[in-house]
């Protein structure tokens, strides 16, 4: 089923300014669409299983199972339990970076100049690390649960020597990625600058998040690119067959 | 930053710990500031899955993403500083006769084996089982939630400019080693990989040697 999003009403919509964040439980079969409202956006994304958050996005398993170092259309985001957590079912960008993580408060202070609430009020510059930790704790987890995220809308490629190259302002305004949730998740999104983005001052691109009704992916869906993705999908289907 | 604590030609006889870790087995210890850990790939092309934690704040674990973004390179070799999620230095690679170590492949598990190789592989021994048994038997008591993506010493996982990723034959060989100096109090958690499904070790996991020099503080 291919869904023309414009003809559907989202269940939920939220604008996230630069430095902002989001976390929400999103059910199996719902679709989270993230839209960049300007060029060169970056959105760090983490997924944890809602009813058992010790299961979470595992970037190494995701990458090695699908022989890729980038996330793109019909890649499956996999958990450390060998299950499909989400599928990229809509993507106008073609490359999302799973390698580079987020900046800490110290990184942000060093790069863009020190800011704090006392002096700058809500114009203080937020870090991806702090944003993620706040949302983890808010969801009953802690800093130890932090793992590498996927940086939506950012492209980082590696040369033969392993050197990482950041492509500046890779995603144009209006870029979108749609992630179909294959399990009930806690999704965390941080609208904070990519650690390798050379732009100064602090890049400021708002995001729009929308959640739509959709259906979980059928493991037989021919758009799944690999047997590995199909098996991860089967593992999720079996888990839900036992739960429900 | 602490200075190098030992002479380059330090004597193996003077080491505080020397042990052979067969494939499929794990090792967990705490290094004090300045302690040096050497891992020797005794027969070549082995993978040693290793995680690090700040011993004083075990929630602050090794971060693959933080480490590679900070050095601008996905591979580890001499000079690389391994960082926690919060940006604290854990260990520095002070010597490396292999030349490249993987940061992206993570550990094998029963569950990821079902995805990569087939549902019937769920019963095979794997690195996460080793990690889980180690953390159940050692202080401080870590939990499965602490098992973040790890380093694979001696493993070769090249990434192509087009974003493709492959598991290539190792560039390690018999006797090659990597040496890590602790930059704070650091918990080390290791699994000598028992993977029998991956051609990059010729389906033949082999032992490694672990050598530790204590700084004596
Ligand atoms: Zn393994």
TrEMBL record, chain B:
Positions of the DUF1989 domain: 21-184
InterPro entries: DUF1989, UAAP2
NCBIfam families reported for this sequence: urea_degr_1
Protein name: Urea carboxylase-associated protein 1
Species the sequence originates in: Alicyclobacillus acidocaldarius (strain Tc-4-1)
